[in-house]
Amino acid sequence: MFRRGRVAAELAWRAQPAAVLGSLAVVLLMGAAPVATAWLTKLVLDSLAAGGGPGILLLAAALGVAGLALVVLPHVAEYLNGQLHRGLQRLIYDRLFRAVNADPGLSRFENPSFHDELRLAHEAGQNAPQQIVGSSLAICQGILTLLGFMVTLTVLSPVMVVIVIAAALPSARVQLALSRRRARMLWGVSSNTRRQLFYGALLTSPDAAKEVRLFGLGDFLRSRMLRELGTVNEAERDLDRRTLRSQGLMSLLGAAVAAGGLFWAVRAAAAGSLSVGDVSVFVAAVAGVQTALTSIVSQWAGAHNALLMFGHYVGVVEAEPGLPVAPEPAALPPLREGIELRDVWFRYDDEHPWVLRGVNLFIPHGQAVALVGLNGAGKSTLVKLLCRLYDPVRGAVLWDGVDLREVHPDDLRARLGVVFQDYMSYDLTAAENIMLGDLAAGADPEPIRAAAQRAGIHDTLDSLPRGYDTLLSRIFFGEGDGDGGGERQAGVTLSGGQWQRLALARALMRHRRDLLILDEPSSGLDAEAEHAVHLGLRRHRAGRTSVLISHRLGALRDADLIVVLSEGRIRERGSHGELMALGGEYARLFGLQASGYEEESLRTTTPSTRSAGR
């Protein structure tokens, strides 16, 4: 707990040191102002009861200044809190997403527990550090006020000090217990909250809108969302009932103590033991001690809860990466010989079956290797290992004999050009969508256009309303071109095949890299576009090391080596001609596809043939 508090304090100081110092000064003044006001009120009343005097105006002026401070200082504190919040939020999010992005692997991102913790870390990052710092300052303010009023009460009635403090102890225990229960509740419903957000996002997502309306899923998704929200609400409602009962009892206890103190003070004043000013300062002191104790306990409980939640943030930021990085990574020279998968076994976790089983494969430098197999055969997983998004459970992936575990993942990936089967569509301009493939090239239009031409998407992008500067989005506005006074421009979107060619252009920004990996680069294209893309890729990858994956086997027949995967094992390997002569699984799959094309050809040509014969 102490370490989390220290981390929060360091973040606050780094984010806004002036706001922290200003808040500390305000806290000192606000802590002393109530005590000063109470004593000045007593002195004014006693002076009036004694017939006034030359010093009463000075006392009244001082009382006015103290009252003014009580009115103005909260607004100053609010302004400083805003400054601190903005500075902290920027720093907190920078560190959180920097830490998330620093993990070079995928294992954590495919773990539901990590996403639960990440959501809580994101939520804690918004409020927890400022609440920890703010509550700590408020506790300091409460302690200062408490000490001042306790001295006052000690002068008037030492017994009352003991009674008031004793009455506050149960409240402190209750508040801390509620704080721990709240932290457990938030963790317990974290999955429900994420599912609620998931269903809500589907109801508003442009990508899901077609199927939601086509299949009439609106009521179904809304009921799922409300069910998850109901679970969260019920947990919160249960905690609120406990809070109401506990805090209600503590409030009754505090009210009884205050009423008893007032009764004693009035009797003492009636007996002449206390002056009118003494009664006023006594009442203010009792109320002040109770208020200060309540504030200290409440702020302590809030800080305790924030510290518990902040643990999720600290846990994410300081977690070891899911993919280990060598302390002294080996240099990765340009590929000269080839890439070897040596007895590679892989599964995503111990509870799942093996996805790759004893794979041995050599990808020679300058040659194209095609991976073929049914869905689930392990092709895309093998690509993830080549990119070192995962490490093999057993065996090794070697780059010119160097184990990829010994190489920094960034150095490896700088030598790769990859199109994944589940490519991304970014709500950015067309040029930015391509530029992301090689940020080092910057926004230079020449390599961007060259990559688009290689992917066969240049003409499409060039014909957009603002060409390559057109925003490809239906959820954001683009910036105006300046002719309309900065009027926002609606974005446009592309077809599925066009998005796929844009993803291919992004990968081809790295066309001079050592290894080109194309995982279903044309699955969403029509026949003409697919043919053009594969002709272009064939010319582009000539003499380059490449790994190709496609279910359309005709696009792979010119590969130097075709590898057939089944149930995580290599069943066949060879050239197209060799595998067709073998008559195994590849020949069977190729024959199935060829027969489908032949049947379609017969269906389309037979009517015209009959017509010609009549």
UniProtKB/TrEMBL annotation:
It is found in: Cell membrane. The chain crosses the membrane at residues 54-76, 249-266. Keywords: ATP-binding, Membrane, Nucleotide-binding, Transmembrane, Transmembrane helix. One of its GO terms (molecular function) is ABC-type transporter activity. The keyword Transmembrane applies. It is a multi-pass membrane protein. One of its GO terms (cellular component) is plasma membrane. This is ATP-binding cassette, subfamily B. It comes from Nonomuraea wenchangensis.
